[in-house]
Write a structure and sequence with these properties.
Helices cover 40% and strands 21% of the residues. It has a 6-stranded mixed beta sheet with strand order 8-13-12-11-9-10. Strands 16-21-20-19-17-18 form a 6-stranded mixed beta sheet, with helices on both faces.
């Protein structure tokens, strides 16, 4: 008869799993709450202290750290010396270990009580997982409730191979590595402002992408806290590596305006159209006017529900991706006419953002890590009026839209917004004046009237030349962080032209 050790915090389906193991001639060893649950369910099980010959002690801190447990897991079945020593010591083999760990994440989410948090750091669990994983040649290690059926199938169908156990072993070490990483990150967050000597970034694989940025590169999507598994739904097509990068920029802009009917069109992660209107179809039509050439083959993010009317409008050009809060079945039927379009939704009336607290970027040899950038709720509202003229309420609304878009657009950038629609944008330039001139040149080519627009920059204007260019275009309101040694010249230019000028005093570079 083989032996299985069951000790789980997540007790989902553990009774059924144990019953099936018993039916397959396994003797069950169990601990604490797991043992109690099995006993109440009528599953024959041996309590852990009968094996350890030592009582659970120190309020449960020590119960499985014992040679009868770890010797039973770790001794090699292919070495006679190990078998002889096990017999000499009275250590019986444990052939299957099923462990999932104390709920540390759930604990830190519900309490700030450090003593309670410390008590929810598992010690014996990770030790048993690592022992079983190390001896995967002979022992099955089960750390995921979702794997119970796979394990039983392997036992019942004689497919419990070394290769199968090796897969469980890898998953087990991923499990303990993620657990320890979470604890280390939490402690650094609590005591070192989140920037300790080590930083751990752990994601769970969602899917492979067809390839990376280019066909010769492999790629995959990983998630934090089941974000994509819970929220991101594929309705049509397959998200590529590049799609996912482009989507990231688009949804952040579309969702930056709360419950408003916002539509953004992006190409290669940069916005080429944006508008807010009373309904989403009108918003899309206005957004498209900014740069319909770039919109071809682009990504559209809709902060709301795409209906059939909007789908028909979108189908007038080639779009590669549409992502929205929801896409109705009627709209999906409309999009069926386009074979190459990809459809994704969040299954909610609005886009659902993860709002990650941290941000990082790979650089050669490592990565840079930082607090995530966010535009404060009152950042525009509390911006300092530095000019003689104040903006009207409508101009301030345009300035807020332009400022939020600029904060989420590659530096150097400028954004022009008129009547709640983006009419010009310059991004990723090596100089801010070039960004301004490029934006205005494109607007002129598109036949868009920029006069009366609000202009936003994500960083200060180092010279007055950008204000001079804005005056030529007829801009009435400008918002920027301020902070240049030539701020006085910029303010003087704004007053000279009768512009409203606001300093937010917060820079939002995006590199």
């Amino acid at each position: 008869m083989k032996r299985a050790l069951l000790s789980v915090s997540d007790k989902s389906n553990i009774v059924e799993f144990a019953k099936s193991l018993v039916a397959n001639d396994f003797e069950i060893i169990s601990t604490g709450g797991t043992f109690k649950m099995l006993k109440e369910a009528g599953v024959p099980a041996i309590e852990i202290d009968e094996i350890t010959k030592f009582p659970e002690c120190f309020e449960g801190r020590v119960k499985t750290l014992n040679p009868f447990i770890h010797g039973g897991i770790l001794h090699r079945r292919d070495k006679q010396s190990h078998l002889d020593q096990a017999k000499e010591l009275g250590v019986e083999a444990i052939d299957l270990v099923c462990v999932n760990l104390y709920p540390f994440k759930e604990t830190i989410e519900k309490t700030d009580d450090f003593e309670d948090i410390i008590e929810n750091i598992d010690i014996g669990g990770p030790a048993m997982v690592r022992s079983a994983a190390k001896n995967f040649d002979s022992v099955m290690i089960v750390t995921d409730v979702a794997d119970y059926s796979l394990v039983l199938n392997a036992i019942e169908n004689d497919t419990n191979t070394v290769e199968f156990r090796r897969g469980l072993m890898i998953k087990a070490y991923e499990h303990t590595a993620a657990y320890d990483s979470m604890i280390a990150n939490y402690m650094n967050s609590r005591f070192n402002q989140g920037f300790g000597e080590k930083q751990f970034i752990v994601g769970k694989k969602v899917m492979d992408t067809r390839y990376g940025e280019n066909p010769h590169q492999k790629g995959a999507l990983y998630e934090f806290d089941n974000y994509f598994s819970k929220n991101f739904k594929t309705l049509k097509g397959e998200a590529s590596f590049n799609n996912l990068n482009d989507l990231n920029g688009a949804v952040k802009i579309a969702a930056a305006f709360g419950d408003e009917n916002a539509v953004v069109i992006c190409k290669h992660g940069n916005p080429c159209g944006f508008a807010i209107r009373d309904n989403l179809t009108e918003a899309y039509a206005e957004a498209l006017k900014c740069d319909p050439v770039s919109a071809f083959g682009g990504v559209v993010a809709v902060n709301g529900v795409v209906d059939a009317e909007l789908a028909e409008k979108m189908n007038e050009i080639f779009l590669e991706v549409v992502i929205a809060g929801r896409i109705t079945e009627e709209a999906q039927a409309v999009f069926e006419k386009k074979k190459r379009i990809k459809l994704f939704e969040y299954g909610a009336d609005k886009i659902v953002l993860a709002n990650d607290a941290k941000d990082f970027k790979h650089i050669d040899g490592g990565f840079v890590f930082q607090d995530a950038d966010k535009v404060g709720a009152d950042e525009v509202k509390n911006a300092k009026l530095v000019s003689e003229r104040a903006a009207t309420e409508a101009e301030l609304k345009d300035a807020e839209i332009a400022y939020k878009i600029a904060s989420l657009t590659k530096s150097n950038c400028v954004v022009y917004v008129k009547d709640a629609a983006m009419v010009a944008v310059g991004m990723g330039m090596t100089s801010r004046v070039d960004a301004s001139q490029c934006a205005l040149k494109k607007a002129k080519e598109m036949g868009l009237d920029v006069s009366g627009a609000a202009l936003a920059s994500e960083a200060f204007f180092p010279f007055r030349d950008s204000i001079d260019a804005a005056q030529t275009a007829g801009v009435k309101t400008v918002i920027e962080p301020g902070g240049s040694i030539r701020d006085d010249e910029v303010i003087e230019a704004a007053n000279e032209f009768g512009m409203a000028l606001y300093f937010s005093e917060v820079r939002h570079f995006l590199h």
